[in-house]
Structure formats: structure tokens, C-alpha cells
Amino acid sequence: MIWEFWSANAPALLLAIPMLGAFATPLIGRMGKTPRNLWILLITALTFVTSAVLAVEVYTTGPVIYTFGAAASSAALVSDSGGIPVRIIFNVDAMSAFMALFASFVGMVAAVFSFPSGKMESGRDGYFALLLLLLVGILGMVCTGDLFNFFVFLEINSLAGAALVAYRIDKGVAVEAALKYAFLSTLAGLLVLYAVALLYGQYDSLNIAVIAERMQFGFLDKVALALLLTGLAMKAGAVPMHFWTPDTYSMAPSAITAFLVVASQASLYGVFRVAFTLYGLTLNYVTIGWFIIILGVLSMFVGVSMAIPQKDVKRLMAYHAVSQTGYMLLGVGVGLAVLGDPVMLESFGLTAMEGGIFHIVNHAMYKGLLFLTAGAIFYQTGTRNLNKLGGLGHSMKWTMLFFVIGALAIAGIPPFNGFASKLMIYESVFAFNPLLSIIAMVVSILTLASFVKVFHAIFMGPRQERYAEVKEVPVPMLAAMGILALLTVLMGIFPQQIVDLVISPAAGALVDQGSYIASVMGGL
Fold first, then answer.
1. What's the pLDDT tens digit per position in 129-181?
2. Which helix (H) or strand (E) holds 206?
3. DSSP letters spanning 337-372
4. Per-residue model confidence as pLDDT tens digits over 481-506
5. Are 412 and 363 a contacting pair, CB within 8 Å?
6. Do 402 and 455 meet the contact criterion of CB atoms below 8 Å apart?
7. CA distance 75 to 241
8. Taking the chain, what is the end-to-end CA distance rounded to the nearest angstrom?
9. What is the pLDDT of residue 381?
10. Residue closest to 371 by CA, chosen among 335, 336, 436, 320
11. For 80, what's the count of Cα atoms within 13 Å in the CB-facing half-sphere?
């Protein structure tokens, strides 16, 4: 009975659980630190289990349509503008389920890493409540089938993220970074809202499937497309709209930075959903595909170039996050560019898309791991300056090991997961345009060189006197890093199983716009 209820209402519970957890956290926090931490662990674990239940149902039976405020979802609810009363429809296909699954997992790991508070004892209840609200925003973005509610969840994502960036204050520097993030998020949100208004004014509907079915791709539709892609690419941190990422990622608490990477990927999901699902039937595939490819190449090259000279370890990692976003854009952009050619799509287009989507989850694992190791170093030394660090390998052996795993993965060294997804991108993109593949490989070489420098600066050399008392971080922080490190290794050793199980269905869901529309319109 419980399983049936859980399965039938998984989309609603996916949001209700963390939302309830967020609002109850300040009350439970009054009982003490331990009850609050156990509560957060319970909420994040239940959210992850719910996302797993939902993913199992989607991958075994097909897309799940869940209508809030109605007894059932059917074509009658979405047949025309009048057919959608004031209701919210979630359409969870394989791509949505994939995003929700790993987002809830990283949220749980980020919460565990945050349990040791160090010197920041005040405001912890608000910190965890905002972390759960950030999770709500991400999950809502990837599950909703309604454009206006996508905007609402995007705003929840942005507001919670901005507040968390400012958490440490740090003489106002963190607040400045948070204000920059909030301003650019507001600008991105306005672009998305204007686009939604244009589409609603033309098609009298906010439902993605309904608009996709009616899309005429006229002038206003093209304006809306430009606004959507610009706003969401800005939130995803793609070059040349990446200027918020270094300050935001470097000043936020490390657990939050790891989770903000996932928040950015939710916006990247929005880019893909708009291009493939909302505009898929009418789009000029080659033009928009090359637009996304160019964003990807710029992000890769500019990100790694700006990372190399950095002295702040988290700022360096922030630029590498921009660079890695480029691989995702490149892979999916190539898939979109050949979408109109069934032969090329079958021979290398789908593989490119699978590589780009696989890189999303791989990046969340190894980049999250790297940000957590940076947080562990800051936790024990109080600095992120590479010139002031050194010799920590003597006293922080586990953190050093986890850093090495993350560094090798981001550089695309086998047998780690970064190599698996990058190899798929290299091979498929080479078949499309060899120059693009060569650029991607050169960026990986530069990434490796950058992290060799960081490893030497932090962990090598004699033990410094000022860090003589430094020891390994608390167990919850080690456990969080260990989980991500283990997955980074396992996903690299067994990549084909991961691709066959979750990645290929996710890529297929993006390509098959007709199934998305049919699932909402009563075709399933």
C-alpha cells in the first residue's frame, strides 16, 4: 500500500518532501545540532529514494504525467488553452528522471559534507533550509511540463543559491558575490519570463507539449527562442555569459558550490529541453546546433585559459567548471546539428548526445568531489591561496587521494568517469568535424597541466610549520568525498552499463519530441 502510494505520487513527493523539510528545519533546529542533522539526512535520503522510485517507473513504463489539482491527466486537460485550468502538469520522461536522480543524490552528499560546522555555528538552521529549497528549485525545473512554473522554480533556485553564496559574509566579499549572482540570475529570469509571455500571447498556453504541437516558428517565436537560450545559457555559466561563476563558486561554502554546479546544469537541461522539445519540429537544426557548439567551444577554451593563472584554488576550479560545461554543450550541440539527417544521427549524432549527457552526471561527481576537497583544505587551513599552501599530503592523506581521483577524472584520464564521457565526445565529434575534437583534446591536456600544478602546490613539499597541527577533516566530510570518489571510479570502470541503463534513454527522450507531446496529449 505504501509503495503504491509512493509510486503513484512520486512527482509530488519529490517536491513536497524537501519543501516540508526546509520549513520544518528551523523548528527542529531548536532541539539541537544532532536532531537537526539527522532530520536533514532523513529528508535528503527520502528525496533521493523518491527520485529513484520515479526513475524506475519512467525507465520501465515510459513518461510519467502528474497533474496537480486534478483527479487524472488526460488529453482533455491539455487539448487547448481552455483545457488547462489553473493546474500544474509534471511531465517526467527519461531525461527529467535522470536529472532528478543525480541532483537529489548530490544534494544528499552536500548536506552530509555540511554537518561539521567548524567556526560557522550561527545560522546553520537557515543554511540547511536554504539548501533544501535549492533542491526544490532544481527538481521542479527538471520535472515540470509548464513554462511558467519552470520560471518559478528557476527563481527559487536563484534566490536560495544567492542566499547560500552570501552565507559566510567574509568581510562583505561573499555578499558582493551573492549580489552579482542575484543580479545576473534576475536578468536571466527576466529573459525567460519575457519569452514565456511571448509564447503565451501567441498560443494561449503555458504547457510545453501544447506549445510545441502548435509552434509556427514565426518572428516572435524566434525572439522567444533567443531570449530563452540567452537566459538559460547565462544561468548555466556558458561563455560569454560566465562572468558570475568565478566569484560565486569561490565564495560559496564548498558543499554549496558542489550543489550550485548541479543548479547550473538544471539550466543547461532547460537549454536542451527548449531546443529539442519545445522547438524541435520547427527548428533549423544546423543553425541552432552550431550556436550551441560555438558556446561549447568558447566555454572550453576560455574556461581552461582563465583557470591556469589562478592562485585561489576554488576560483581555479570555478573556471574549470565553465570549461567542462563546454563539453556538454559540444556533445549535445553536435547531436542537434545532425538531427535532421537520420544517417548521421544514427552513426555519430546520438553518441555525441549520449557523451554530452553522460558528461553532465560525470561532471557533477568529479567536480563536486574537487570542490569538496577544496572545502576540506579551507576547513583545516583557513586559506584557499595556493601560494600559502603546501605539504598537506603529510597530514591529509585521504583528502589528497580524493583530490587526485577528481583531478584525473576532470582531465579525462582512464579509468575514471571523465575519460568515459570525453571519449564518446571525442570520437563522435571527430566524425562531425575533426577540428572540434582536437580542440576538446587540447583543453583536456591543459586541464591536466593545471591540476598537476594545483596538486604540487597543495600537497607536495615538506610539512609547513604553520600547518603542523593540521589533521584530517571530520568523518562526515570524508564520507561525502569518499562516496563521490567511489562513484567517479565505478562509473569509469563500468561506463557502458551506465550508458545503456540511463544515458541512452535520456538522449532518446530528448530526440523523440513526438513521444513527449503524445504523452501529455493522451497519446500514451
1. 999 999 999 999 999 988 999 999 999 999 999 999 988 766 667 888 888 88
2. none
3. HTTT-HHHIIIIIHHHHHHHHHHHHHHHHHHHHHHH
4. 999 999 999 999 999 999 999 999 99
5. no
6. no
7. 39
8. 25
9. 86
10. 320
11. 1
* Strand (E) or helix (H) holding 89: strand 88-92
| Cα–Cα dist 76/521, whole Å | 8
Q: Is the peptide bond before 240 cis (omega within 30 degrees of 0)?
A: yes
Domain assignments of the chain as residue spans, ordered by start: 1-282, 284-493
Q: Could you count the other beta carbons within 10 Å of the beta carbon of residue 475? A: 12
Least confident of 36-45, 162-171, 217-226, 308-317: 162-171
Distance separating alpha carbons of residues 416 and 367, to the nearest angstrom: 13
Least confident of 267-271, 500-504, 508-512: 508-512
Q: Which residue has the cell 569538496?
A: 372
9-40 pLDDT, tens digit each: 888 899 999 999 999 999 998 888 889 999 99
Q: Is 149 left (phi over 0), alpha (psi -120 to 50) or beta?
A: alpha
CA dist., res. 282 & res. 370, Å (int): 41
Residue type for position 511: V
Phi-psi region of 443 (alpha: psi -120 to 50; beta: other; left: phi over 0): alpha
Q: How many residues does the chain have?
A: 524
Contact call for residues 352 and 424 (beta carbons, < 8 A): yes
The amino acid occupying position 450 is: S
Question: C-alpha dihedral over 331, 275, 194, 181, to 10 degrees?
Answer: -20
Phi then psi dihedrals of residue 374, to 5 deg: -65, -40
What is the model's pTM? 0.91
Vertex 388 angle, CA 384 and 394, to 5°: 90
Residue 222 contacts by C-beta under 8 Å, 6 or more apart in sequence?
none
